[in-house]
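Hi there. Long-time user, first ticket. I'm pasting a complex I've been working with (about 791 residues overall). I'd like to know whether the download I got is complete or cut off, because the file seemed smaller than I expected. Thanks.
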Amino acid sequence: MRLVVAAFALLLGACSREPAAPVFHSEGYPPQLSDWRLMAAQDGVLELNPRAIPYDLATPLFSDYALKLRTVTLPEGAPAAYRDDDVFDFPVGTILSKTFYYPQASAPWTGDVSYGVSPTVEGGVMPLNGVRLIETRLLVRREAGWVAIPYVWNEGQTDAVLHRTGAIRNLTLHRPDGAAEDFAYSIPNQNQCAGCHATNNTTRALAPIGPKARHLNKPSTFADGVNQLDYWMLSGLLAGGPAAEEAAPRNADWTDAASTLDQRARAYLDVNCAHCHSDVGPADTSGLDLRPDVPFGPKFGACKTPVAAGGGSGGRPFDIVPGAPDASIFVYRMETTRPGDMMPELGRSLTHREGVDLIAGWIAAMQGGCAS
Amino acid sequence: MPIKIRPLPALAAFLTAIALTGCGRREAAPAAGVAATSDYQETLMAALLDAKPGDVIELPEGTFSFDRSLSLAVDGVTIRGKGMEKTVLSFKGQVAGAEGLLVTASDFTAEDFAIEDTKGDALKVNEGENIVIRRVRTEWTGAPKTENGAYGIYPVQTTNVLLESNVAIGASDAGIYVGQSKNVIVRYNRAEKNVAGIEIENTFDADVYENVATDNTGGILVFNMPNLAQPGARTRVFKNEVIGNNRANFGHPGTPVATIPAGSGVVINSNDQVEIFDNDIRDNKTTNVIVSSIHSSGLSKDGMAADFDGYPEGVYIYGNRMGGGGTNPDGLDLQTLKIAKFGPLGALPDVLWDGFVNDSKLVGGSLPAALRLCVDNAGAEVINVDAPNRFKAPALVTEDVRCSHEKLPAVVLANGIGG
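Hi, the file is complete. Here it is re-exported in full:
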């Protein structure tokens, strides 16, 4: 624990300047991202406000290979309240940000991007050399609830501009094997934010998805030697959590070979699918529920006939045919890039090959098949 | 490939353009002099985002192109065009989004416009009350094909729904599909060249009347599927014209409708208390009416909740005018059966029952009266094709199933329509 405190103090020490505090706008849609004072792009770096604390998730949502920098900003002295299974209860005044960016495949900027290791954020500073910022999405906790506000980075990469109706960016992805693929990167409109974040389709209240114990319970990427949940509690971001991280739920890192295939696949399906495919989400119409605690069976896709998939069936009979990934609708819907067929419905126009490999491998390792 | 940032002034221009033209009425009009194409996308998206309860969003005359889905999440909004042939929202160039227009709101009305060529569903309403869709056309242009989107008009998990005077063409699943809903009226619509013309699924209390379903693979379907939040029961199908639904099935293999034989008029699968009466059901070459169970639908037992009731019970068919059906059934089993039993020039009877019965509900060897299939339809014969025994002993059962059920009450919507 002493090490933890030391690391924390070190981190604070790195931020000795005192820039202006972030601005919480309790209403309206400020026209510039800089109006919130969460981050500033200048002198070749993206500098976070010291009160915009970066965090990441054990297994993140796939978004066309975009890299993501997430921050949380809380009102001073007002921590979020820990919850075991649900997203933490954040106070009014909370600002979550998610900045989507790519490594450029060439300089100057040509719309060609690659993917790989994220640039490091040290002392709240991320170098922008060879990096193209695309968009920053804010989730803001106001009196009446969460509001989603999308900003798109300008051509000069100096600020991001409010863009409530979303946009398409035509980019070219260069894969590690040298293949180049044109794709339409989709910046969601404000209603489409709700497509994922209105996780209860009856109340339709927006909510964050990432900041749950099971996604955050991992070694911190931003503070050496500390568990991220511990870090949140030590730094006053979170209150009421368990004394030890072992007591909190924990999702696997989907790339972690030390976890079981089942743990990795379930973590992947949780963060990519379960915000809609739950008992109350927009995809409860399908009868498919991919929350991590749902036992494996028809509800989790086993031998389940599609209901309203249309072309999403890919000509395959069941969601999951144990032992047969090529006969399983799951794999088709992840592989295809047809807008009417693919899953998730939003936020992707490329195939996440590595994700497909994971889920296909998971299905291939199952015993059984489907009785007629 | 330089990236163009769309100039923001378009938004500002729009904001001034949406001056209120009346009591909460907003004209979502394209700016003067702007080609009525993709620029209108931003205008309409912003109008949908900024809508307030009580607003009427007026769509101008013209054809407008969209490359992304539209969505509405505000209760109490009406979207109104100038007519289903005059206001056309075209999604031919769609690159993102699983539907044309997605509505997640209550008290919604759509009228007088068309949605064409979406990549997925055309108009989906996911959960809401008091939904009215009238004089809307959803169409996939060109020859009907498997690549077309699944559903045309698609309310799901909705209550108090009125779908009237719409036209649905070319859907690769159902032209008009009502799923997991309650209290529904589907009337005066026309569905053609879809796999399923009109489909009512896992829905309680639906009246389907005075529609025309023609040139689909199956005309009107009343289904229950397993694993969903609610089963369905109490649908009345009456005074419809269900004629010549003989289009080759172009549904996606794996989807439930892909198993519908071409030439099916009205199909009841696993649903209960369904009344089929006073319809004109003609010239459907597999057969005019099919009553079947989930057990002849190719589903896996492993993929069904154990408590799912996959048997059609309390079905009542009477007073329909039927003829000209059953002459050329789709599929080897039925074709073989027809030839063996009725000869190469014969025809299957007007009503075909797969013969599955829930053995666990038998009392003294027969079903309780309320659960039986009743067909009391002058001139119509009924065949039990013996599907449980792989069609070994098909038999005419017309007199065995001549009985009646108490008639269902008419559906009345919350706004008083119906009854």
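A couple of notes from our side: The helical segments of chain A are 2-13, 190-197, 213-216, 228-234, 261-273, 329-335, 353-364. The longest helix of chain A spans residues 261-273.
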